[in-house]
Write a structure and sequence with these properties.
By secondary structure, this protein is an alpha/beta fold. It is built from twelve helices and five strands. A five-stranded parallel β-sheet has the order 2-1-3-4-5, sandwiched between helices.
């Protein structure tokens, strides 16, 4: 339960090789990497192995990434699919969102964004494990982080609020949450940033301030490193995406 199965679907062998080497050389929590050179292979591997994370190129020969994602999600609605494309184009991104995938990244892929996706997938896998026991300290840390996203989050302050030592706080949280406190805080900030970009018209400068960033430039740089696109680019695509179908 401490690693995930990753499916990489890309028609360029050099991309698949890079991802495989990066994962292994950096010790990321991936126990198995499945590779597909086209959409049809991706569908077959996904349905056979149910990977925890699927990184899918949009443009592939035969069955493209969007159609492959739709086929996979028809059989595996909860599949965690992230689209990757070298085309910084609104229509491609909108198509990916319309297919119901989790997110999209622009190529060339940012290594930090890839690592974050893998850790998120592991955290989701562990959180959904039926025998996972909740730990009260984890809940305390999560509550503190959620309430202080606009402040400088220091381990010493978090541990003090939980009435434990910093080392104990860090060790217990990592063991039970499957990630470090700093990784969890970064993900919470990213989720909040996306929420504000998608649901409000707040200027990027104000969003940066609300999330504890000293400057909007630093926030924009961090956001792009985490997602592969700028805050305004993310807002443009998400706001333009059609709403989900309803009865």
């Amino acid at each position: 339960m401490n690693a995930i199965t990753l499916l990489v679907a890309d028609d360029e062998p050099i991309v698949r090789t890079f991802l495989r080497q990066y994962v292994r050389e950096n010790g990321l929590p991936v126990s198995r990497i499945l590779e597909a050179a086209n959409g049809q292979e991706a569908i077959e591997l996904a349905l056979e192995h149910s990977p925890d994370l699927i990184l899918m190129d949009i443009r592939m020969p035969g069955v493209n990434g969007l159609d492959a994602a739709a086929a996979i999600m028809k059989e595996r609605p909860a599949a965690a699919i992230v689209m990757a494309t070298a085309y910084d184009d609104f229509e491609y991104a909108r198509g990916a969102l319309r297919s119901g995938v989790k997110d999209y990244l622009l190529k060339p892929l940012d290594p930090a964004a890839l690592a974050d996706l893998i850790r998120k997938a592991l955290a989701a896998k562990q959180a959904n494990a039926p025998d996972k026991a909740a730990h009260p300290l984890v809940a305390q840390v999560r509550e503190y982080v959620a309430a202080n996203l606009g402040e400088t989050l220091r381990l010493e302050d978090i541990a003090r609020a939980a009435h434990v030592s910093p080392s104990h706080c860090s060790r217990v949280f990592s063991r039970h949450a499957g990630m470090s406190i700093s990784d969890f805080a970064a993900r919470q900030r990213l989720a909040k940033a996306k929420e504000l970009l998608e649901s409000t018209h707040l200027p990027v400068t104000e969003i940066a301030g609300r999330l504890g960033f000293s400057t909007s430039a630093y926030f924009a740089s961090w956001f792009k490193r985490m997602t592969g696109t700028s805050p305004l680019g993310h807002r443009k695509v998400k706001k333009a995406a059609p709403p989900p179908f309803s009865d």
